[in-house]
Amino acid sequence: MTTTTRSEDRNRDEGDNRQKGSNDGYEIDTDPGRLDVGLVHHWLSTDAFWALGRSRDTVERSIGGSLNFGVYSPDGGQVAYARVVTDRATFAWLCDVYVAPAHRGRGLGARLATAVRDHLAPYELKRTMLATLDAHELYAKVGFVPVPDPELLMILSSER
User: Going by C-beta distance under 8 Å and a sequence separation of 6 or more, which residues neighbour residue 119?
Assistant: First the structure.
């Protein structure tokens, strides 16, 4: 797999920035211009339990305000996605991690999480967080641990 990332500033996060990690032809790229926004919207709004019904406008705005990671198959088609909301100084939130069903079981989720971790490392963030219902083992493999003091966390949510 090729993984493309940049680590110094936002401008370096946006552009041809590919990384290779194995010889299977998959590639991870942070170039937002390469994303298939319609496909990402379809995945999230119809198949991702946390985003069912999410509007195209919301997906477009979330992409515009985030550091995005696309995974591309050897033929160039997008097969996975993740985004990171970050200030690139103290905090990041990994979210909307999705691997297309036909490409699951190949380790792409772990490779994508690893690429995100490695991409964020130069920023020396105090914390990177995520929420997961069922992928704790996957994220543990790349260094995520349970929140040590969850009682300290609070949420302001539009969902009541």
Answer: 5, 6, 7, 30, 67, 69
3-state secondary structure 111-138: HHHHHHHHHHHHHCCCEEECCCCCCHHH
Quick one: which of 120, 115, 34, 140 has its CA closest to 79? 34
The residues facing 18 across adjacent strands are 29
pTM score, whole prediction: 0.86
Residues contacting 140, CB < 8 A, separation 6+: none
**3-state SS class at 46:** helix
- Of the candidates 63, 45, 64, 47, the residue with the CA atom closest to the CA atom of residue 55: 45
Rounded distance between C-alpha atoms, residue 63 and residue 30, angstroms: 11
Of the listed ranges 7-16, 22-31, 116-125, the least confidently predicted one is 7-16
Contacting residues for 71 by C-beta, under 8 A, at least 6 apart: 1, 26, 27, 28, 78, 79, 80, 81, 99, 103, 108, 111, 112
Please answer whether residues 69 and 30 qualify as being in contact, where contact means their C-beta atoms are separated by less than 8 angstroms: yes
pLDDT in tens, 64-120: 999 999 999 999 999 999 999 999 999 999 999 999 999 999 999 999 999 999 999
CA gap 104, 111 in Å, rounded: 12
